[in-house]
Amino acid sequence: MVSSKPTNAGFTLIEMLIVMAITAILVAIALPGMERLIASQRINNRADQMFALFQFARAEAIRTNKPVLICPTKIRKNTATDNGCEKFTAYDEGRGWQGFLAFNDVDMDGNYKADTDSSVRVVALNQNTNIKVMQKWKICNTGQKTCNADISDNKMLGFMPNGQFGIGNGANANDWTIGQSNVVMEIIDSHYNNVNRRIVITPSGKPVACKSGTDNTNSFCALQLP
Questions:
Q1: What pTM does this model have?
Q2: Which end of the chain lies in a sparser environment, N or C, as judged by fewer CB atoms within 10 Å?
Q3: How many Cα atoms sit within 13 Å of 193 on the Cβ side?
Q4: What is d(CA 160, CA 98) in angstroms, rounded to the nearest whole number?
Q5: How far apart are CA 224 and CA 226, in angstroms?
Q6: Phi first, then psi: what are they for 60, rounded to 5°?
Q7: What is the DSSP letter of 115?
Q8: How far is residue 190's CA from residue 135's CA, in Å, rounded to a whole number?
Q9: pLDDT tens-digit profile of 120-177?
Q10: Which residue has the higher pLDDT, 187 or 95?
Q11: Which helix (H) or strand (E) holds 11?
């Protein structure tokens, strides 16, 4: 006579341990690739934001017939704190400033004043001290295959009403170098040095988004930065 008593089918402890071990191995294999994919997406996102910022700043300068300047800024933690300009030299591996402020220089004095000038866009590359991406900035001499000059002192980036690009600060035209140099910005993942993107701002003010490999329209895309 066949028993009608139901049987309890399930996993044994050994089978569960084997499944857990296999899962742990698969996770250990897949995790580095996933982290690298996330890093690559983050770098592309930050580079796209900066490229859009440069395009917008140039268009806004032409539209308003006033310079639009870009300076590093500390990302404010609340609305009670105004964004302001920091020096490029205060970078301190991302701890000195975390993003960029673009403003319409209404009074054309070459500096940012919150009560006079008009902030047009802020881009955050890092949030506070959570450093996920690093940056390199170099000035490249036009007509020479060099990219070794730094953005020093209180200098900032500027797009002029005629669309040209310049570097300087202050109201004195002699303190600005306009239409003479390329500037290279490289964004690098803080954990994967070979995950990076580069943008070149040309003397004419046109930003170039460098591509991977050799398919680039600007010679400064492939130069090694010091």
A1: 0.83
A2: N
A3: 2
A4: 25
A5: 7
A6: -70, -35
A7: T
A8: 9
A9: 999 999 987 789 999 999 998 766 677 889 999 899 999 999 999 999 999 998 999 9
A10: 187
A11: none
In this structure, are residues 146 and 139 in contact, taking their beta carbons and an 8 Å threshold?
no
Three-class DSSP category at 44: helix
N-to-C CA span, the chain: 86
Residue where the block lists tokens 């902030």:
119
Please write the tens of the pLDDT for every residue from 191-217.
999 999 999 999 999 999 998 655 567
Tokens representing 47 are: 């580079």
Helix (H) or strand (E) holding 14: helix 13-64
Do the beta carbons of residue 164 and residue 178 sit within 8 Å?
yes
- Torsion sign over Cα 105, 111, 117, 123: positive
CA distance 209 to 216: 9
For the chain, the domains span 14-221
What gap in Å lies between CA 5 and CA 79, rounded to an integer?
70
Q: What is residue 155's DSSP assignment?
A: -
With contact defined as beta carbons under 8 Å apart, do 163 and 204 qualify? yes
Q: Residue 179 is encoded by which pair of tokens? A: 């239409």
Report how far residue 87's alpha carbon sits from residue 102's, in angstroms, rounded to the nearest whole number.
Answer: 14
Phi-psi region of 108 (alpha: psi -120 to 50; beta: other; left: phi over 0): left
Which residues lie closer than 8 Å to 78 by C-beta, 6 or more apart? none
Superfamily covering domain 14-221: minor pseudopilin epsh domain (3.55.40.10)
